[in-house]
Amino acid sequence: MTSRGASAVSHAADSVSQFAQQAGGRLREHYGDVTDAARERYDRAQDLVRHNPTQSIAAAFGVGLVAGLVVGPGAAVALSPAAGRLAARRRRGQFSCY
């Protein structure tokens, strides 16, 4: 490698190093802001649930119901091999409770 090539590589490495240091500094600066905002929203959500437990349970039930309808009954088959085998036996009429 020529001295010009080595110089170019060294310059590129220095530029990348500077960029990484600046990016890391920015991330550290904003990390505190993001964690504070997340903590504040979590505390507000906790207060909302604490002051409105019935509404919170109803909302959670509704979200779960909608998610279940969207995903459909086949989701259990996809998630569990045993459920898949059971569903296949039911379709073939081989299912027995005994």
- Overall geometry comes to flat
Strand proportion, as a percent range, falls in under 5%
Could you tell me the radius of gyration in angstroms?
28 Å
Report the order of strands and helices: HHHH
Q: What separation lies between the terminal Cα atoms?
A: 79 Å
Uncertain regions spanning at least 5 consecutive residues? none
Largest sheet: none
Structural class: mainly alpha
Q: What is the total tally of β strands?
A: 0
Tally of separate helices = 4
Instruction: Tell me roughly what share of residues is in helical segments.
Output: over 70%
Q: Mean of residue pLDDT?
A: 80
Write the layout of secondary structure elements.
Layout: H1 3-51, H2 53-71, H3 74-79, H4 81-92
Helix pairs in contact: 1-2
